[in-house]
Specification:
Blueprint lengths: L1 E5 L4 H12 L4 E5 L7 H12 L5 E5 L5 H8 L4 E6 L8 H4 L1 H22 L3 E7 L23 H20 L3 E6 L2 E2 L8 H11 L3 E3 L6 E2 L2 E2 H12 L18 E6 L5 E2 H12 L5 E3 L15 H7 L7 H16 L2
Parallel strand pairs: 1-2, 1-4, 2-3, 4-5, 5-6, 6-11, 7-10, 8-13
Antiparallel strand pairs: 9-12
Helix pairs in contact: 1-2, 1-8, 5-6, 7-9, 9-11
């Protein structure tokens, strides 16, 4: 039996697949390797996964294409799925809305159908902290209403949660949705702020600070996230008619995965400057459409149910990322 990991060439997908392989699991990875950001980074992640042994099999395909998905996995025994593939990015969704409908809606449905027909033991899927919208109340808690998304990306992620709830109710498929809060670390995404700031500072270019830099994020180090995903994968929610985190009485739970420690953007910049050994030139800009000024996670449910206790403060994680970036870019 194997574990299917979608988005295996992506940032979180790579780390989760790597952790599973290290733990002795067989992993089937799928990824489209699209050009949302440099596909070479995705190919480099795949090369690192292949170095971990023969228990990793990869298929390049678009999981929104149901025929390609079914064809690639025909005859393959899959007992669990970690669905991390998606069209990511809040700002990109403003200009490219159809990409989100295809990947995040049609694609999620295809994975649900795969889970149903294969009768998998657990489907863990990526949601997002973006579902909370522009809320003044912090921290964001699982009991909060999430009916007012301010980006199409957030709307598709909320829709994914609703589709999963339906399949858990109708077909009793054990599922867990994970609302990630600003994950960062080695092998991260070039469209994320930490990568952009590090790249610009090392190259002597100015950095853009939206909302004039008055923003806070619950930065979550990738090792803490990978630990949590693999732990949660091993413990599917019970089909016991009891209420789960997120409110479902079907076998469907939702958790926040954040750092429970909001950090101001100014502190993040200070840490990157220190790790790079250079000061940043700053350009102050207004808030971008679809973005939010602050995110901060209540992680009580994940701590209680899965002993989730993020251990990496920003002051340790940022130097680790900058050191990896220098090595990867040969700087």
């Amino acid at each position: 039996m194997a574990i299917l990991v979608t988005g295996a060439a992506g940032f979180i997908g790579y780390h989760v697949a790597s952790r599973l392989l290290t733990e002795g699991e067989s992993v089937i990875g799928i990824d489209e390797l699209n050009a949302y950001y440099d596909p070479q980074l995705k190919r480099d992640r795949l090369a690192a996964l292949r170095e971990l042994g023969e228990d990793f099999i990869f298929h390049q395909l678009d999981f929104a294409d149901e025929e390609s998905l079914e064809s690639a996995l025909a005859g393959t025994d899959i007992d669990r799925i970690v669905h991390l593939g998606a069209q990511a990015g809040v700002r990109y969704s403003i200009d490219n809305p159809r990409a989100y409908v295809r990947a995040n809606l049609a694609g999620h449905l295809n994975i649900l159908e795969l889970a149903r027909t294969r009768k998998v033991g657990h489907l863990v899927y990526a949601s997002s902290s973006s579902v909370y919208g522009a809320r003044a109340k912090q921290p964001s808690s699982l009991g909060d209403r999430v009916d007012h998304p301010i980006s199409l990306y957030a709307a598709t992620k909320k829709a994914d949660e609703l589709m999963s709830e339906t399949y858990a109710h109708l077909y009793r498929i054990p599922q867990t949705g994970l609302r990630f809060f600003t994950v960062y670390g080695p092998w991260g995404r070039p469209d994320m702020a930490i990568w952009k700031f590090t790249s610009a500072i090392l190259e002597g270019r100015p950095i853009d600070l939206y909302n004039h830099g008055d923003m806070s994020r619950d930065f979550t180090f990738i090792d803490d996230v990978a630990d949590a995903v693999t732990a949660i994968l091993a413990r599917p929610p019970a089909d016991d008619a009891e209420e789960k985190p997120g409110g479902s009485i079907a076998p469907h739970a939702i958790y926040n995965l954040g750092n429970n420690r909001p950090e101001r953007l100014s502190h993040l910049i200070d840490l990157i400057e220190s790790a790079c050994g250079r000061e940043a030139e700053k350009i102050l800009l207004p808030m971008q459409p679809g973005d939010v000024p602050a995110t901060y996670a209540n992680i009580d449910a994940a701590a209680r149910d899965h002993d989730y206790r993020p251990a990496t403060p920003l002051a340790e994680g940022i130097p680790e990322f900058v050191n990896w970036y220098r090595s990867y870019k040969h700087l």
